[in-house]
Specification:
426 residues; alpha+beta; Dna Ligase, domain 1; five-stranded parallel beta sheet; 13 helices
Length: 426
């Protein structure tokens, strides 16, 4: 089989490399010039996005909807991306309205246009005893989402956002803070509906132990197979019919908060979750290339997934978690291009690499901010799966390597909390 991946920054390259190792032909196109060197010397790369009609095209991120729909119109099989995907990802309001259309509950939500900051301040001034979450729409760093301790503090934060990011924000919402446990539920969807089973994830986003520091995409996660649950039934399962009606093909995740009052949708991830997808691959018991081929052609309704737990720990180097507009800024402020990366080969199936390339026989850091890899393992015991990650990381040799060391306690507790909240659901 032949595969072509279109990527912004190369985040799906680890998946494409796995497909190549399964014996398939693969090609890669990276659109962001600051990430051109990612996977140099590892995967065949193209300077233009020109998939052949007999190639299966994989999009690893959103914002390629126009291209994806165009390829589909010309008879190309596409996994991930469409203009509908983009609306779910980039418009908070559209995503929440779609949840409601599917019968999924959401927290009380108040919408504001990009120029309505003063209106938001008035609203918060009249809600001083309540907590709200600020969530902007647009192609912005995830760290701009913020949970206020009270309305006064949140007003101060939003004024800072207005000062520095006003032009980048399309619109924003204020969402009433809901106590509970956060869990994500994912299906891979084909033209005929969901491919079972689902998988669920709990993750930590804060950069440092004890949830200190900046929010990132993910610092560590725990993934498990889910055949049936109240969270699934009151959440993402309600969206299957409408997703099919909108021609959705790809991975789709619904992030929810669960408490004794119900299951409340927070946001969609209509693409591969990072780092959930790399961790989930430890549970997949079949060739992922064949699975994606079968899904886009509507030839399967189920996948082979282990009943174990899988855990992932993100490994990085400075200046991550810096998110500059240009990698050139990184090279000036904290040069890391070409840093040698020594990963023991005996754990090669447990590494999912991000910003890497080869220099001769040496694996080194490519262009990027310093996101190196996810180290993930599966085990029947969730805590043991995390300990396996740490044992493998101890044998990795990278200058200035950084990762969270408290996940062995944090992730199992998050899993237990989700299960306890689900048992309390009416």
């Amino acid at each position: 089989m032949k595969f072509f991946m279109m990527s912004k920054c190369g985040e799906g390259c680890g998946l494409l490399e796995k497909i190549r190792q399964e014996g398939n032909s693969v090609r890669l196109y990276i659109s962001e010039k600051d990430y051109y060197s990612v996977y140099d010397g590892i995967i065949e790369k193209e300077k233009t996005c020109s998939p052949d009609k007999d190639e299966i095209v994989i999009f690893d991120s959103s914002s390629f909807g126009y291209e994806a729909d165009l390829y589909r119109k010309h008879g190309v099989h596409v996994f991930g991306a469409s203009e509908f995907h983009d609306k779910l990802e980039n418009s908070r309001n559209f995503g929440l309205e779609f949840m409601q259309d599917c019968g999924i509950d959401i927290p009380d939500t108040y919408e504001f246009k990009k120029k309505e900051f003063s209106k938001a301040y008035d609203f918060l001034n009249h809600s001083r005893d309540e907590r709200f979450v600020f969530k902007p729409s647009g192609d912005l760093p995830s760290r701009l989402t913020y949970v206020g301790e009270d309305s006064r503090e949140l007003i101060g934060y939003i004024k800072w956002v207005e000062m520095y990011f006003k032009e980048e924000i399309k619109d924003f919402i204020l969402q009433r803070f809901v106590e509970g446990s956060i869990v994500s539920s994912e299906f891979w969807c084909g033209p005929n509906g969901f491919v079972t089973p689902a998988n669920q994830t709990v993750e930590v986003k804060k950069f440092m132990n004890d949830d200190l520091g900046q929010s990132t995409g993910c610092q560590g996660n725990l993934v498990w197979r889910c055949d049936d649950s109240k969270v699934l039934e009151r959440g993402i399962r309600r969206a299957e019919k409408k997703l099919v009606e909108n021609g959705f093909v790809g991975a789709i995740d619904l992030n929810t908060i669960v408490n004794e009052d119900g299951v409340f949708g927070l946001e969609w991830t209509p693409r591969f979750g990072l780092d959930a997808m790399p961790t989930f691959l430890q549970l997949l018991k079949q060739d992922v290339g064949q699975l994606i081929s079968d899904i886009v052609k509507g030839q399967t309704k189920e996948m082979k997934v282990s009943g174990d737990f899988a855990s992932g720990v993100r490994v990085s180097i400075p200046p991550y978690p810096l998110e500059p507009p240009s990698i050139k800024d990184v090279k000036k402020s904290s040069p890391n291009y070409g840093i040698p990366l020594d990963f023991p080969e005996r754990f090669e199936k447990n590494y999912y690499f991000y910003e890497v390339m080869t220099c001769g026989d040496q694996l080194v850091h490519s262009d990027g901010t310093g996101v190196i890899a996810v180290v993930s393992f599966a085990d029947s015991d969730c805590k043991e799966s995390i300990e396996k990650c740490y044992k493998a990381i101890e044998e990795i040799c990278i200058p200035d390597m950084q990762y969270r060391t408290d996940l062995g306690d944090v992730l199992p507790k998050m899993y237990d909390d989700v299960r306890e909240e689900e048992l309390c659901l009416a």
